[in-house]
DNA sequence: CCCCAGTCCTGCGGGC
DNA sequence: TGCCCGCAGGACTGGG
């Protein structure tokens, strides 16, 4: 479930290793099936060892280590992946390790319970082809109101489903899509091409405010969730969710109507039928 | 292009 | 108590 706020929190934590030199690359033997690492570990090691971590960036829901030769190491956590500078939650799901010299943290770990995530290394042109602006939409934290509207206004899909499409907008996942639409007072089944100018402005404002608020709380750690920051501490935004996983509870805004759960594109959506309109 | 269903994966909780 | 099934969803694939 790491989405933009969780991955941004990871990125900020990983900044502590900028300036460090990579001394070793290991795929950690774990109790469960191995995750995807590309290229194969021996080639990965040849290219990474000796390089200095020059910057830590975020591309949508991925953490990118930019090396001093412009190559990039990309961690993609998907559902349960964690990038850690501290002890992992357990040993059996520890997947990958970079050892470092010249910085206080001597290793960076990748831990992934379900193993849907990956660690990949790219040359600059490969990174652009795989995750550049031709593939990934504008970042949800930096997109302007005009960019957001222009990018989505011809889409015929429901706005909740469109917000999950990383080719249209990068960073929003299932949890924050519901939260953002609630703050924006837009019904999740409303189709993008039918949204008014006022709705686009509300959506843009809500996008910024919800994501920034969630980053301030270092993301969401659900009851059954695994998300932790780089020090293996949970986030705090789950205590501030307005609608996500709160079906049946009274809407925190109107305090009159219970929050409703529906399924869109095989994913749960939560909303307030009162605050988010009944006309769609 | 657009959209949906199926797939990967593990752990958990409901139902019997 | 134990077992099975369904569910959680990010990103990708194949099909209509």
Written account of the structure:
α1 (4-14) crosses α7 (197-216) and α6 (174-184) packs across α7 (197-216). This protein is globular. The protein has helices spanning 4-14, 41-48, 124-131, 145-152, 159-163, 174-184, 197-216; strands at residues 21-27, 36-38, 53-59, 62-67, 72-76, 81-84, 94-101, 107-112, 118-122, 260-264, 267-271. β3 and β4 (62-67) form a beta hairpin. The strands form 3 sheets. A 5-stranded mixed beta sheet has the order 2-9-5-4-3. A 4-stranded antiparallel beta sheet has the order 1-7-8-6. It has 2 domains: 4-131, N-terminal domain of MutM-like DNA repair proteins, CATH 3.20.190.10; 145-271, Helicase, Ruva Protein, domain 3 (Orthogonal Bundle), CATH 1.10.8.50. It has 280 residues and is of the alpha+beta class. The protein has 7 helices and 11 strands. The protein binds a DNA duplex (16 and 16 nucleotides) through loops.
User: Tally of extended strands?
Assistant: 11
- Unreliable spans: none
- What summary fits the major beta sheet? 5 strands, mixed
As laid out across the biggest beta sheet, the strand order is 2-9-5-4-3
Number of distinct helices: 7
Q: What is the radius of gyration?
A: 20 Å
What is the CATH superfamily of the largest domain?
MutM-like, N-terminal
SSE order, as H and E? HEEHEEEEEEEHHHHHEE
What is the terminal-to-terminal distance? 28 Å
Shape: globular
Q: How many domains would you count in the coordinates?
A: 2
Give the mean pLDDT.
92
CATH class of the largest domain: Alpha Beta
What is the CATH third-level topology name of the largest domain?
A: N-terminal domain of MutM-like DNA repair proteins
Strand content: 15-25%
Question: By helix and strand content, what is the structural category?
Answer: alpha+beta
| Helix coverage percent | 25-40%
- Named at the architecture level, the CATH assignment of the largest domain is Alpha-Beta Barrel
């Amino acid at each position: 479930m790491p989405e933009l706020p969780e991955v941004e929190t990871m990125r900020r934590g990983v900044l502590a290793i900028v300036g460090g030199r990579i001394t070793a690359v290991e795929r950690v033997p774990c109790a469960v099936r191995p995750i995807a690492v590309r290229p194969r570990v021996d080639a990965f090691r040849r290219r990474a060892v000796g390089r200095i971590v020059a910057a830590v960036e975020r591309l949508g829901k991925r953490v990118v280590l930019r090396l001093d030769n412009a190559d990039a190491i990309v961690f993609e956590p998907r559902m349960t992946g964690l990038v850690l500078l501290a002890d992992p939650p357990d040993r059996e799901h520890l997947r990958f390790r970079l050892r470092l010299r010249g910085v206080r943290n001597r290793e960076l770990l990748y831990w992934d319970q379900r193993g849907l995530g990956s660690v990949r290394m790219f040359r600059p042109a490969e990174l652009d082809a795989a995750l550049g602006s031709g593939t990934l939409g504008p970042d949800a934290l930096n997109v302007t109101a005009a960019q957001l509207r222009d990018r989505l206004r011809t889409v015929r899909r429901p706005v909740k489903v469109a917000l999950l499409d990383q080719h249209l907008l990068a960073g929003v996942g299932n949890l924050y899509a519901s939260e953002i639409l609630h703050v924006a007072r837009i019904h999740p089944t409303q189709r993008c091409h039918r949204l008014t100018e006022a709705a686009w402005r509300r959506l843009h404002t809500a996008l910024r405010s919800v994501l920034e608020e969630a980053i301030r709380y270092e993301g969401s750690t659900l009851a059954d969730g695994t998300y932790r920051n780089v020090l293996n501490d949970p986030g705090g935004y789950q205590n501030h969710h307005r609608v996500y996983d709160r079906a049946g509870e009274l809407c925190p805004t109107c305090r009159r109507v219970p929050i409703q759960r529906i399924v869109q594109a095989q994913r749960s959506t939560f909303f307030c039928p009162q605050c988010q309109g009944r006309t769609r």
